[in-house]
Amino acid sequence: MQNTRNVTDSVIWVGANDRRIGLFENLFPVEKGVSYNSYVILDEKTAVMDTADAAVTLQFLDNVRGALGGRELDYIVVNHMEPDHCANIEMLMRLYPGAKVVGNAKTFQFIRQFYEMDLEGRTVEVKEGDVLDLGYHKLQFVFAPMVHWPEVMMAYDQTEKLLFSADAFGSFGALDVLFNDEQDCPFADLAEMRRYFSNIVGKYGPQVQAVLKKAAGLEISAICPLHGQIWRTDIAEVLKKHDQWSRYEAEEKAVAIFYASMYGNTAEAAETLAAMLAEAGVKNTVVYDVSRTHVSYLISEIFRCSNIVLAAPTYNNGLYPTMLNLLEDMKALNLQNRTVSIIENGSWAPQSGKIMREMVSSLKGMNVSEKTVTIKSSVKEEQRQALKELCTEICASLEA
Length: 400
Ligand code: FEO
What we know:
The structure is a single chain. By secondary structure, the protein is α/β, with parallel strands linked by helices. It has two domains: 5-246, Ribonuclease Z/Hydroxyacylglutathione hydrolase-like (Metallo-beta-lactamase, Chain A, 4-Layer Sandwich); 256-399, Rossmann fold, CATH 3.40.50. Helix content is 34%, strand content 24%. It is built from twelve helices and 22 strands. The protein has helices spanning 57-68, 83-86, 89-95, 105-114, 190-201, 205-216, 235-246, 265-279, 295-304, 321-332, 352-361, 381-399, and strands spanning 5-6, 11-13, 16-18, 23-24, 28-29, 34-36, 39-41, 47-49, 75-77, 100-103, 123-125, 131-133, 138-143, 153-157, 162-166, 222-225, 252-259, 286-289, 305-315, 318-319, 339-345, 367-375. The strands form five sheets. A seven-stranded mixed β-sheet has the order 1-2-7-8-9-10-11. Bound molecules: MU-OXO-diiron (FEO). MU-OXO-diiron binds at residues 80, 82, 84-85, 148-149, 167, 226-227.
């Protein structure tokens, strides 16, 4: 059954929601599901802008058929070759034997790696700046390598000023409403947009910066990403958020405390510090048990907050595994420019502080507090004093 929405008179959203998916990329929890966006353009020539994940094939094909209204398909534009968007290329080629696949050299390399479809006589290879003329719509290709794969490109509709942005400006979460202005708060899903950005393309800040420079030269009436809502208001704010995130600049002066704790003693230190900060007037501090919250949420909070506190016990003469996982993910995602404080615990030979310090210090632009608060088994008066001093130091950093 067709379920489509018009973006403009001649551009139709033909995507689908997947609310049954548990883990995006079999890795990231998506309690609110995910959307796979695709678009049909009706013009003298017709085009589909990317396809959709295999999980939503039937809905997607119904939507394409309905949107085309009996017309043939001329072009399948492939802006991104990750399987959640390219899974139905071959199906469309079979259903629409006159359709040609539009991509760049890397796109076709990846199609051949993933699939065995016969592309003979059915390809249109484009380069940066090339324009695909559909009649009224003229699609200009703007390459966006490594946002999030090397072949990624965006297509800018010069006529209606739509930016088909591939993975850029996307979000986790199935769509309750398609357009961001169909809810009272246009940024209602900011946390999921940040989590998507930080975990999926967070590593590629410089490449996102390059895309933002290109976008700055375009007049944009709406951003049409491959996941998440279509942005037709607040576009400057969307670009600004992505600019901050891709420069690894904190969105807020705020503290996020991340603790690992086996028996509650390191947790007590973390909770005590949070209470001290609140009593000192610091607002909006957040506390996470790294063993209980998926690392993707923790990474997202680090992208948001200026100050982070890492508290963990020593384990097997090393660092407690869930904290180690967080630090390795921070490194993998190129996190930078935060103020970091460290609390360690160890009953006979505390090592965790040294390891956390070394790992965080290896990241760019990290301002790591010289003092480590050391707990030997449990928080005593000596540690309460040390936590008070740490609280004072964090307050001073927030006011700087
Ligand atoms: Fe949703 Fe990089 O693909």
